[in-house]
Amino acid sequence: MFSAARHVFIVLAFACLTPAAARAERIRTSIPGLNLNYLSVLTAGAKGFFKDEGLENETIVIGGPAGIAALVSGDVDFSGAGGSGLRAAAKGAALKAIMYQTEKPTWYLVVHPSITQVSDLKGKKIGVSLIGDSEDRFTTLFVERGGLSAKDVTKISLGTSPGDRILAIKSGGVSAVVLDPAATVMAEREGLRSLAYLGDMFPLPFQGYVTTHQKIAENPAQVKSWIRAMVRSLIFLRERPEEAAEIAVKHLRFRNITRPMLIDAIKSYVRAFPQGIPGMPSPEGIKNILEYEVRLPMKMDESIPAEKFLDLRWVQEIKKEFEQKNASK
Q1: Domains, the chain, ordered by start
Q2: CA dist list (Å): 139 to 9, 40, 126, 164
Q3: 220-249 burial, b if ≥16 CB within 10 A, otherwise e?
């Protein structure tokens, strides 16, 4: 187990005292940060989507590799640290990705007002959650596409708190940070500016969820049930942003943000979803996942087969189920 001294666990349990809940399978899902990118898990609990699938979920915030370590050790059942999970799989961990929430990153690069273009970042510090994680690498891709090299900027690990990242820019500790849509709205309200929407670069499915080979082999029904609840939640976010904002206000730690601003942030977030039923990455997206999340960061020379790292059969089945249901209406 992880000690409280080393890792901060933010536990959000959606428990119900009904007899049905007593018979529910208890599971734990870890997410890298308590932000808008993972509102789906909280929504699935708040709206009863997990309960409908016979699951009682507990959500825990554990960032990056630590979340994967918790998954491997059996402390959690599913982890939203998809990039870290795939790289752990490349090193031999018995893990596979089972769904992706978006078809492209939802991050924005927010900067000090003095930064007006990518070249202004030369010699500056950029804040990310963890050095070596997906934020770090994707930010490097962005600055390289803007004409700089990775050595032209310095990355600083700031943790997962949006407030801490915004404060880091305002205090002069860094010149830019990576933020989700809601935190971007907060930052702009405090005088900072959004330099770029990183999702515009190219399709790269993000917010992938991974689980263990053991879970897939021993309880495939639970895996499918968990995915179905998550897909329902993503659809809810897209179709009912006003209601989703109420859940965000209650469960996410926002400051200095109004409900209308939060609704706009959710609408901005869901623009990263694939068309139609979310959860299943496109063929181009799958190719980019393997390239940018595994082969390049792991410095692998040979191409890698998707089936070694991804098991998308359930999300594909669920997508077809929803499509058939919609077609019959």
Answers
A1: 11-104+205-327 (3.40.190.10), 108-200 (3.40.190.10)
A2: 27, 24, 9, 18
A3: eebbbbbbbbbbbbbbbbbeebebbbebbe
Q: How many CB atoms lie within 10 A of CB 99?
A: 30
Half-sphere exposure of 260 (CA within 13 A, CB side): 0
| Model pTM score | 0.82
pLDDT digits (tens, 9 = 90+) for 210-244: 999 999 999 999 999 999 999 999 999 999 999 99
Q: Are 131 and 157 in contact (CB under 8 A)?
A: yes
Question: CB-hemisphere CA count at 13 Å for 228?
Answer: 20
In angstroms, how far is CA 182 from the centroid of its own chain?
Answer: 14
pLDDT in tens, 276-286: 999 999 999 99
